Amino acid sequence: MPMVEAKGVHKHYGAVEVLKFVDLTVARGEVTCLIGPSGSGKSTLLRCINHLEKHDAGELRVDGELVGYVERGGKLYELSDRQICGERAQIGMVFQRFNLFQHLTVLDNITIGQVKVKGVDPDTARVKARELLTRVGLDGKEKHYPSQLSGGQQQRVAIARALAMEPKLMLFDEPTSALDPELVGEVLDVMKDLAKSGMTMIVVTHEMNFAREVANTIYFLDQGVIEESGDPRTVLTSPSSDRLKSFLSKVL
Amino acid sequence: MATDGDDTARVVPVRHYGQWVGSVVALVMLAMLVHTLLSKVPSTTGQQICHTTNGVRSCHPLLVWRFGWNIVFQYFTTSEILHGLVTTIELTLVAMALGIVIGVVIAVMRLSTNRLLSTIAWSYTWFFRGTPVYVQIFFWFFIATIFPTLTIGIPFVNVTFIHIHVNSLLTAFVAASVALALNEGAYMSEIARSGLIAVDEGQTEAASSLGMTRSQTLRFVVLPQAMRVIIPPTGNELISMLKTTSLVSSAGVVELFGATNNISAANFEVIPLLVTASLWYLIVTTILSIGQFYLERHFARGALRSPPPTPIARLRADVRGVVAKFRTPRVAKGVSP
Question: Could you give the ipTM of this predicted complex?
Fold first, then answer.
């Protein structure tokens, strides 16, 4: 059973169709990169997967279970807020603008989800938080507030915060787009390590080198449609569609 | 720009002549104010002081403080005034605490996606902000005239569980608290709403992505950050409330202003007792302002790279700066550090 399976996922804002019957499969332990011009629906697709956005039609399954709905007797019943929260807690998400909790220290940012959502006791949560900080290379920054860190450091804390929930799937929404060029590398390194450890990851990115190096599968979206997909070498080096060719000529 | 033999150029700061002139004018006006405050005038009773020196009797009018300071200090700490002060503070705290709770609840309801809740919240603010607080105070004082009893039971059926006389429930103090709190709630709701809106949406999304419920997101992520925006105007409201409580004196609650009024009604020393009341209001306001400063500092953590210095820290830094200015040996000409 794949980790994520989308069949005919459709999403529109009013008259604007953002996703048009998207099919996507993400196998366990694999890294999938979503690439495409801005406004192509990559982020929307990612946000549908943890139900930050509701899809309007189609079937979206994570770990075999429908996202946001439950099927009973041939009907789809919308899940309650609490049930959706339970689904989300198992999916980590990293945002373009980090979105660290500004009023909490680095350590508290990493423990709050464990303590309040999973009911882990605070001491255990702190131990885990310190381990994760070491893993993302931020030892000794426990007491800092997010505003005292560089963008790259903040993003690594954000990754640690997501990992603290022990997710089965990690979503990255343009994790390096808001960073100064010299800080991109440190975040990508953490992500590469994570990929090596066997985490299932879906990454919306403009970093083609990262995609080429780390991704098992690349999906190219344009205007809400998956134009092309496949292994990185084929997609990035010998694109078949004109749209992908023109996109790659601009970003590579 | 090195000049001959000197490798550092002398820095000439901008001279602020306007500031000097302004300061002198301000000092003169301050002196005038102090002079007026401490001046003495002939007693309005026409009383004279006479004494005889070397068999010559001379008289001159009795001079009294223009602002009646002797009367101010005579009454400043009488039990009647202190009682009033305590009532004022109690009323302020009770009304404000209830007002904040009501305000936050109404603000959250107003921002809810549930149309019923947001309409109720909107109507609440519309009503309580749209009528004068003075009118509302009197309304609660006289509510017993239209609802003499309070009955809890099943509506439209003759089943009752509790039956109370409203007058025994709504004492003057309770009525005043209710009136002030309900009115304050309307204003606080707008303040709380502006604070909640000011928190970046990304914070809510991050909390959701961790699996927090809406109420957890509100309690642990959004409200603590909204406090930074909410506290300064709330301090303003608290100070405003302290003084608004004086309105309830006309409805029979003897708080600070009521107490001074009662005294001046008996001894006709109106101005000195108004000064007494004003001084107490100023003292409490000052204490509240200090508290507000530290509260703001507390909730600013994380938002600023370094918290603003406390006034004491700033004073210390100033003193250190002045001391350093006199202590530092002048760098000899031609010697660069």
Answer: 0.93
